[in-house]
Amino acid sequence: xxxxxxxxxxxxxxxxxxxxxIYAGRRxxxxxxxxxxxxxxxxxxxxxxxxLQIEFLGAASYGEQTxxxxxxxxxxxxxLPLSGRDVLLVEDIVDTGLTLAYxxxxxxxxxxxxxxxxxxxxxxxRRQVDVEVYGCVFSIPDRFVFGYGLDSPGGYGxxxxxxxxxxx
Length: 168
What we know:
alpha/beta, Rossmann fold, seven-stranded mixed beta sheet, two-stranded antiparallel sheet, 9 strands
């Protein structure tokens, strides 16, 4: 186990309180990046006391590998117009930054009033491109992780309550 469920929830509560202050009195669009970001986003929005709408965006760059292929495929797009809206992008993990950079560019092309990105896990050792991350709950070492929404090779393990890693 790398990060316990209790520790995850504590970090999410703090981030949710911070985002509540930032977005007080505003209506926002929260966009979890699927599939891995769904669990983090669900817990995060329950810890935010603001008016919000939910949209979903899907992207894939791993396939059944333990490292990103570098090729990003859009698997699901938003339906709401984002122009002039405050957008909060919720991502499970950023490592190379390739997927997140692609998604941020896509959302910015839709002219939101603002775009903030929050991530549950940041694996800075693998970064290949710069990405804007407003908030990060945990920085982690360069290990393959799964659980709490993140999947293991083959697509399993998302339902684990903790974040775990493979043995060396």
